[in-house]
From TrEMBL:
<dbReference type="GO" id="GO:0005737">
    <property type="term" value="C:cytoplasm"/>
</dbReference>
<keyword id="KW-0032">Aminotransferase</keyword>
<dbReference type="InterPro" id="IPR015422">
    <property type="entry name" value="PyrdxlP-dep_Trfase_small"/>
</dbReference>
<dbReference type="InterPro" id="IPR015424">
    <property type="entry name" value="PyrdxlP-dep_Trfase"/>
</dbReference>
<protein>
    <submittedName>
        <fullName>Putative succinyldiaminopimelate transaminase DapC</fullName>
    </submittedName>
</protein>
<comment type="similarity">
    <text>Belongs to the class-I pyridoxal-phosphate-dependent aminotransferase family.</text>
</comment>
<dbReference type="Pfam" id="PF00155">
    <property type="entry name" value="Aminotran_1_2"/>
</dbReference>
<dbReference type="GO" id="GO:0030170">
    <property type="term" value="F:pyridoxal phosphate binding"/>
</dbReference>
<keyword id="KW-0663">Pyridoxal phosphate</keyword>
<feature type="domain" description="Aminotransferase class I/classII large">
    <location>
        <begin position="26"/>
        <end position="379"/>
    </location>
</feature>
<keyword id="KW-0808">Transferase</keyword>
<dbReference type="InterPro" id="IPR004839">
    <property type="entry name" value="Aminotransferase_I/II_large"/>
</dbReference>
<dbReference type="InterPro" id="IPR051326">
    <property type="entry name" value="Kynurenine-oxoglutarate_AT"/>
</dbReference>
<dbReference type="GO" id="GO:0016212">
    <property type="term" value="F:kynurenine-oxoglutarate transaminase activity"/>
</dbReference>
<dbReference type="InterPro" id="IPR015421">
    <property type="entry name" value="PyrdxlP-dep_Trfase_major"/>
</dbReference>
Amino acid sequence: TVARLQPFASTIFAEMTELAVRHGAVNLGQGFPDSDGPAGMLEVARQAIADGFNQYPPGRGVPALRQAIAADRARRYGTHYDPGSQVLVTVGATEAIAATVLGLVEPGDDVVLIEPYYDSYAAAIALAGANRRTARLVPDGDGFTLDVDSLRAAITPKTRLLLLNSPHNPTGTVLSEADLTAIADLVIEHDLYVMSDEAYEHLTFDGHRHISLSTLPGMFERTVVISSAAKTFSVTGWKIGWACAPAPLLDAVLTAKQFLTFVGGGPFQPAIAHALNHEQQWVSALRDTLSEKRLRLSAALADAGFGVKRSDGTYFVCADVTPLGATDAYDFCRELPARLGVAAVPVSVFADHQADWNHLVRFTFCKKEETIAEGIRRLRAGH
Ligand code: PMP
Ligand code: GLN
């Protein structure tokens, strides 16, 4: 392995899921649902395969899906992307992230990201031969907020791109309009591009609303919006994601994307088009159920002695292990599957300044009622 990729030999999700399988643990670590998405959507995919829709789809994605993505964003955010030139279907949000960084960043440039950050961001920056500089979230009551000064300090004359994620994995933070406005001001002042990862755009709770940075004044032309069907329609294995941006930015993403995978997921693309057009009620129901599971898991974690953080979005909740007498959340997660039969993920792996996050563990609540209930039973039994 080349030096710049050596720190990325294994992902935390592979490590903790392997431990979960080995110990028969309830996997509240890796974020993937254990039940299926809307039946109508699954049927469209089956039909597409039966109808012989099994060869390379068009380079930018199946037109019906690009139209559905553009219509969805127009409906929910009032932003207008031309399906012909401003929407690109990718192999999950993961490929969109990598292609955005590879397409917009020169070797030696600086890329700013906000700790804790989704793990693939750092790897994408390394693939591009660029340097990462981090800003950070800071505690705010029982949740988190952006430390705007840390963002200002992270920007250098060599910074080209900011990687942003809200609703935020792993903390469940939904950035406020004030935080987004502060970000937009700095982005304009320093003439940056932004990748806005909105994979959890539909999953916000308690009246919190996702605001896309692309809707703020001056931001549309600087922002590559990324999202994915994985979380919205419970199809993490289909790997259908997308990027939306003005043509000059999207062309850069496409240039990289076409040599990463060329195209992907032919028969799944019409199924996701169907889901975006017709399954919004299913998504609302998913959100409501997730919100309840979030409250139940959070209460159980508090009962078991964790210091539980507030989750306003995504399907993750973070909990402090210091009240339990633990000093290292990574060690705690390595032992948890054997000790209690539950798997979780340490937040420190999503950070460069690991000591700042060493006390937090991430749990997911995107599992079936009975899976959550069994996880809770085991956490309580261990208490
Ligand atoms: N961004 C974030 C914030 C994520 O949590 C994930 C994991 N779903 C991804 C990107 C990757 O999405 P996908 O599975 O569509 O590649
Ligand atoms: N996005 C999911 C998570 O954060 C799973 C990611 C993965 O397995 N690569 O848990």
